[in-house]
Each structure stands twice: as C-alpha cells, then as structure tokens.
Amino acid sequence: MSDLITALATELVDAYASRRHLQPPSSRAGGLDLPAAYAVEAELTRRRRAEGRTTVGRKVGHANKAVWRALRLETLTWARMYDDTVRYTDNDEASLSMAPLCSPRIEPEIVFKLRRPLGSEALEPAAVLDAVEWIALGFEIVDCVYADWKFEPSDFVAAFGLHAALVVGTPLVVTATNIPHLVEVLPRFTVDLQANGQSVAQGSGKNSLRSPVLCLGELASAVARQPGAEPLAAGELVSSGSLTEAQPIAAGQTWTAVVEGIELPALTLRSG
Fold this sequence. Notes:
The chain is an alpha+beta fold. It is 26% helix and 30% strand. It is built from 7 helices and 14 strands.
C-alpha cells in the first residue's frame, strides 16, 4: 500500500504542476477509500515540509451535512494549508494570479485562528469560540485536476483538498465579551458574492454545517478520530467551508464578498 500511496502523491503533484486532468483514483481498479486518501494527504504534507514549507492550518470540505449520507460520509473532510498558500490582505483587498491553476473556483468562507489547541471535547459553540483568537472573512481558491469537477470525497482529500490559496481579510478579535453575540450571529449572517460588481451568489452562515463555529467543532472532532492525524494546534487557521456555491474564477475579474449581520468588512480579490 505504501508504494501505491507514494505513486499517487507523485501523480497528483505532477498533475497540478502540468495543469492536466487525472482520472479520479476512486474510479480506478481497486478504488481509493478515505483512510488511503488521508495517507496520500499525509505524504503530500511530508513532501511539502521537506521542501521547507510550513503547515499553517486546515481547510474543510463537505461542510453540508445533507450530502453526507449520499456520499457515505460520517463527518466532514479536511486537508492542510501552507505558509505559501495563505496570504493576508491590505485593507481587505488583494490580488492573485490564476495562471498556475488548472480549473479554479472561488468560495467565500469564515476563517478562524486558534489561540489554543482544540480537540473533540469542545463541541458547543461557546466552548469552541473560547479556543479562537479571531475570525475573518476569507476567499478560498480551490483547484481541481479531475475533469468536470467530478470526484468522490476520497479524491478530494488526496488532491490537497483542492486547496490552491486562501486570502484572509481583516480579523475580528474574539473575546469573552463578544462570544455570546458571535454564537448568535454566525449561523444567521448573510453574504453576497459579486463578480465585477454583479451579484452572482448568495449564502449565509448556516451553509457551513449550520454555523461556521459548529463546523470548526466538527473538524476538531473529525481530526481527533483520524488515526495519526495531528490535532488542531494553537496558531492554526481553519477555513470553515464555503458560504455560497463555488464560482469559476478567471484572470481579469474583481470579486467582492459583502456580509450583513456580522461585524466583518467586505473583502475584494482581483484575479490576474
């Protein structure tokens, strides 16, 4: 099995580098289950660290519980993010080149930064937020090497969680004073995703597992149950699942996410 894991990791790295499509491993002879997919993800992490890169957090996939049964999932999926794939904005504006990517899409998400480790013991929203240093609005850029964006959860995990980049807006510091308010508004706030000034998608906090903070708690629990997985640590970032349907993004566009019902500024990304 280790030879297969190594070979698949190499195949995925090469596919992203050459911007070519692959047949999803789950559809090949022998298939690919989730334990094997997380082994591939761990091998990719080992290689990136060997290259001098640092893991800085996790991105979440399948944060819609309604699809779990159809996909035979018991929880959400996740993959690591790196110091060279996460960037912060200047006054909530950023630019990012799409040239290296194969088939990119953009997702507005809530980003958390942990101030202490988070395990499976804290699933109530207030207890989860007590472990959070700040929250921010972010843009997750996902990229897929599977044709027509057709894949299974195991394919998603093995392919870096489709993570290409995360752009993080101005943070809102979490305090004991504002935790009750955040518990209340995180499921209810709304977001309007705009491309070149035109609204293209709408969503709300409830689209991320009923609340982004519930998604964070579920991630901590899922990581704790994953054999060999490193637990969520202080300082980690978590991109907690898309608030709208992911939208194709191309060079020469200006994307803006405008939120209402939570004290976060609008976020703008210009794609090059």
